[in-house]
Amino acid sequence: MKGIAGRTVIITGGAASIGKVLTRRFHEEGANVVIAARSGAPAEELASELGTRALAVETDIRDDAALSALVARTVEAFGGIDCIVNNACSYVDNGAASSRAEWLETLDVNLVSGGILVEMARPHLAKNRGSVVNMASISSHAAQAGRWTYPVSKAGILHLTKQQALDYAPHGIRVNAVVAGWTWSDPIAGLSCGDLAKADAVASEFHLLGRLGRPEEVADGALFLCSDHASFTTGSELRVEGGYLAMGPEQAGPAIAKLTGGSGSVI
Predict the structure, then answer these.
(1) I need a labelling partner for 68 at 20 to 30 A (CA). Which of 81, 117, 152, 192 fits?
(2) Are the CB atoms for 11 and 208 separated by under 8 Å?
(3) Which of 37-41, 44-48, 256-260 has the lowest average pLDDT?
């Protein structure tokens, strides 16, 4: 991917699930990767595996002091910051019954902390005309039964992306969002007992392409937005969601045929 090699990227939640794939893909493309993770051991293990150009920084993104230290460690190690991928995520969600603490936890991790991190890193991003990728979701666009805090936080990410793009454009900083569909990840693997075929079969009903997304596909979307290929792209959404949002309530089947008993024509 043009313009990734030699750049420095911070990936929050970069030691697990989709974040781990993000870290690997950026590293494969020649970037210096900073793995910011609440659990230090997995991040250290991944950094050790990748070897050169990889740094693990144990970071609780809800803590401003930890975010400040993350920025400082990154600049000390690699001389600057070119990209930030706000990937860390909380899935705490009890729908309408969510407590105030659960609301605040989800919003803090999924939305607020990413905004604060980028502002802390703004001088370094501006120096390098850097970019930011916020990881959103199809949940940003669609109401989902029994889920409140997660979709609301992801919807907030889309508006945050526009706000950041507007206010940071004079600094030469681009900000975009990846809108991911159902993607093979730790949460879905857990729900499906590790059965990818089963998960694909369930997802096929809701995605035009008939399957789950793969984390590598989401990572490639983030890579594109951080690359020189996206040099005139900011304030936008890149949908990596297999046609989920295009499907609509009629889904992929011929709805009229259900009325006609087989014919798809109203004539």
Answers:
(1) 152
(2) no
(3) 256-260
Range of weakest confidence among 51-65, 164-178, 251-265: 251-265
Residues forming the active site: 150
Collapse the DSSP code of 179 into the 3-class scheme (helix H, G, I; strand E, B; otherwise coil) and give the result: strand
Nearest to 92 by CA among 78, 104, 79, 74: 104
- Nearest C-alpha neighbor of 206 from the set 252, 237, 238, 240: 252
Structural element, H or E, at residue 54: strand 54-58
Burial (0-12, 13-18, 19+ Cβ within 10 Å), 52 = exposed
| Tokens coding 113 | 């902390």
Residues 155 and 149: their CA atoms lie apart, in Å, by: 10
Assign 266 a pLDDT band (cuts: 50, 70, 90): very low
pLDDT at 263 over 70: no
pLDDT at 238: 98
